[in-house]
Amino acid sequence: MRQALRRVYSWPMADEDHVLKETMKHLDEAARRIRASRHLMQENSLVDDPAYLRLVAQLSEALNVTEAAHRLRDCL
Q1: Burial of residue 34, with CB atoms counted within 10 A of its CB: 0-12 exposed, 13-18 middle, 19 or more buried
Q2: Where are the alpha helices (DSSP H) in 1-76?
Q3: Residue 66 burial (CB count, 10 A)
Q4: 5 Cα distance to chain centroid
Q5: The predicted structure's pLDDT at residue 42
Q6: For residue 24, what are the CA distances in angstroms to 21, 27, 36, 60, 63?
Q7: Euclidean distance between CA atoms 69 and 5, whole angstroms
Q8: Range in 6-15, 42-51, 56-65 with the lowest mean pLDDT
Q9: Euclidean distance between CA atoms 56 and 41, whole angstroms
């Protein structure tokens, strides 16, 4: 059972570069989705709503983390 949980893809990853490229694609997609969520909240004037301040802060933090990971990959 443990082995089945670890394997996300149905094909084996050939090498480290391929794994990193796939991971970077996932990070790029995550950053796009986070930006889209923030934009949607801005369009609907939710970023200044006290009920959404924590969510806005978490989205900003998540975007910072994905961008930092991308910069780190560029340095390798």
Answers
A1: buried
A2: 2-6, 16-43, 53-75
A3: 19
A4: 21
A5: 94
A6: 5, 5, 18, 19, 14
A7: 25
A8: 6-15
A9: 8
Least Cα distance to 73 among 12, 10, 4, 22 occurs for 22
pLDDT above 90 coverage of the chain, percent: 54
Cα angle for residues 15, 66, 43 (degrees, 5° grid): 140
Contact assessment for residue 37 and residue 63, using Cβ atoms and an 8 Å cutoff: no
Report how far residue 30's alpha carbon sits from residue 70's, in angstroms, rounded to the nearest whole number: 11
Contact 20, 41 (CB under 8 A): no
Residue labelled with tokens 């989705």: 33
The model carries a pTM of 0.71
